[in-house]
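Sequence in, structure out. First:
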Amino acid sequence: MSEQPFSQEKRILMAMRKTLAHIVRDLTPTDRALSYPLSEETVQDIRACFELIAARERELAREAGVTSRERPHFADEPRSTSVVSMQGLSSRGAGHD
């Protein structure tokens, strides 16, 4: 798959996911006493669309060689790894002659 169709398809999927999410948010009543305007069948169809979009996004990521563990991180997020300085270590350590 060439780079141009990949990025175009990815943009389409992102736009579809974002638009569906906005529609659901706009239709969700803020007052719990109000009834939800969508039928249960429509809600299930929207969930199915989200699942299909997510599945295709995973396929595209896998084809691009991106693993599911590669996720964006905030700069102030605690790190699970730490950097150890190699400076000052000699090539002859304990136990080496």
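Second:
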Amino acid sequence: MGTDIYGYLEARHPSADEDWFEWDAWSGACIPLYPLYDGRDYDAFTCLFGVRDRLGRPSVAAGRGLPADASQPVRADYESTARLDPAVHGCTWISWTELRDLDLGRPEYQSLGPGTGWEHVFAVMRALAGRFGPDGVRLVVWFD
């Protein structure tokens, strides 16, 4: 059986730290990963999230879990899915800053380069970072 990836892009509202702000800090944008990425590339899953790694290779953002401040829609979808399907695993997240700083020319990151489908995710995250800042955009994922 294969492993599929699920998740969302989230953006943090620029005023979330202000005293008057009383809403979900990470609800500025909540975009499902699909249809931006619908692949099943285990090399990408390994190098980014440590999922499906059979060789003990390092990953960028493995095992972080669901962010404590995840937006309500992301939290609800993840918790509902995990409750219904015990095979759900590997929940973690990665910021645009971390993705932006990867050297995609290195061999370990070739599964993230042009033509892999990840370029669509990165393009949307880059655009959101123009509004919310590089640390104000993240990708939250889980696997099944």
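Remark: The chain has one domain: 5-17+24-143.
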